[in-house]
Amino acid sequence: MSETATATKQKTVKFIITRQDSPDSNPFIEEFELEWRPNMTVNSSLMEIQRNPVNCKGKTVDPVSWEANCLEEVCGACSMVINGTPRQACTALVDNLSQPIHVEPMTTFPVMRDLAVDRSQMFDALKRVKAWVPIDGTHDLGPGPRMPEVDRQWRYELSKCMTCGVCLQACPNVNANSNFIGPFAVAQVDLFNNHPSGSMNKQERTEALIEDGGLQECGNSQNCVQACPKGIPLTTAIGRMNRESTKHLFRKWLSI
Amino acid sequence: MSTHRSFFNRRLHSLLGVIPVGFFLLEHLWTNYHATQGAAAFEEKVNWLWGIPFLPVLEIFFIFLPLMYHGVYGLYIAFTAQNNVGNFGTFRNVMFMLQRVTGVITLIFVAIHVWQTRVQVALDGMTASELSRQTAEVLSNPVNVTLYLIGIVAAIFHFSNGMWSFLVSWGITVGPRAQRVSTWVWMGVFVILSYIGIRAMLAFTSPEFTSVLAR
């Protein structure tokens, strides 16, 4: 009898969510208790709260706001801090998490509402470092150069970045006091500098990367590589760009 | 060019930490280690150093100013970081935090140490043997011994771990394997230098050292 009682009792999942009504309002904590279901994730739990937004006190509240899109850890939209770790809600299986589950927004970014944050600083950073291959024009440029297989393999790893913001949340040097653009941007410069056509604009990207708030703000805590959900070798990319900027520094200063 | 100011400042900070500040630390530990062979050996080394021509110029431009730059800019770096070892208890993140903590401790210790030894030497026009006596006197106080112990270990840690970061920041150790090997190498350096530094400090407190001075 008692076993059944315990089993029934365990069939719920408790969430402690840090919420915020607007970008300027103060954050507050709200608790929700949901019925356990097989294979449930933090994302599916948030969907459940959306359907039935009743908190632990039995009061109907505004549904929790968050962003989600692909639900298979490739878009990066549903990044949030789950039990202290920044990660995607869609792949955070409830059965693998210790309870109660603490869910907070990634506070490195401006919080828009509840768990939804504004990651536009990341897209600004990508624009700043020119993380693309400029080939647009009015005439046919002909076929591009071939890419060596070793470069392709390395670039494939870096290309997995989904601009989710986890590396920025994990980095102790990305915060309100600093203007560090974040580890992901460094890896994207490495990605496009190693593209055979992209390498033609290598100088511009490296120059932009070492402007204020750039690569030099890295303090080697190496949290980014630990936190990255896609397993991108971010610290190796940082090391490679450190080497590149050392060369750039000497090349430039010894030739002007 | 002005937009590259922070890159230039960070790289200069990194470079000055090794040359000349790191180099001076090694030289200083080496000179002081002679105290383990008695006051005479230590004083001989001190006199040799004091015999270097243009010593005040060297001290100002190759020790004091680089150290001040490294210290002040380092404080700015240390207080810009928002440590998060609570959520990320990985080895490197702990080292990141310790690098900043030991940097602040070292700066405070160096200020006290320079006051107690170098500034006093200049003010009182001390000889090498008077310097040994002064140092032995400072270290006869157990509070100072504890302070020096913490200060020496912090300075050596900051140097060893700083060398690890220097190699990363300049793009010398790039991949994870190179960085792992580098971690072991600088850990070894930390242990050896700590032994040298602590033995040198304890030499000034030993009865033989003080009895020679009394004579």
TrEMBL record, chain A:
Keywords: 2Fe-2S, 3Fe-4S, 4Fe-4S, Iron, Iron-sulfur, Metal-binding, Oxidoreductase, Tricarboxylic acid cycle
Protein's recorded name: succinate dehydrogenase
Superkingdom: Bacteria
Matching SUPFAM superfamilies: 2Fe-2S ferredoxin-like (SSF54292), alpha-helical ferredoxin (SSF46548)
Pfam families: Fer2_3, Fer4_8
UniProt-listed InterPro entries: 2Fe-2S_ferredoxin-like_sf (IPR036010), 4Fe4S_Fe-S-bd (IPR017896), 4Fe4S_Fe_S_CS (IPR017900), Beta-grasp_dom_sf (IPR012675), Helical_ferredxn (IPR009051), SDH/FRD_Iron-Sulfur (IPR050573), Succ_DH/fum_Rdtase_Fe-S (IPR004489), Succ_DH/fum_Rdtase_N (IPR025192)
Enzyme class: oxidoreductase
Cofactor(s) demanded: [4Fe-4S] cluster; [3Fe-4S] cluster; [2Fe-2S] cluster
EC number: 1.3.5.1
The family this protein is said to belong to: Belongs to the succinate dehydrogenase/fumarate reductase iron-sulfur protein family.
Automatic annotation (TrEMBL), chain B:
One GO MF term: metal ion binding
Positions of transmembrane segments: 12-30, 50-76, 97-116, 147-172, 184-205
GO cellular component, one term: membrane
Subcellular location(s) of the protein: Membrane
Binding locations of heme: H28, H70, H113, H158
Classification via Pfam families: Sdh_cyt
Keywords from the UniProt entry: Heme, Iron, Membrane, Metal-binding, Transmembrane, Transmembrane helix
Domain of life: Bacteria
Protein's recorded name: Succinate dehydrogenase subunit C
Organism: Marininema mesophilum
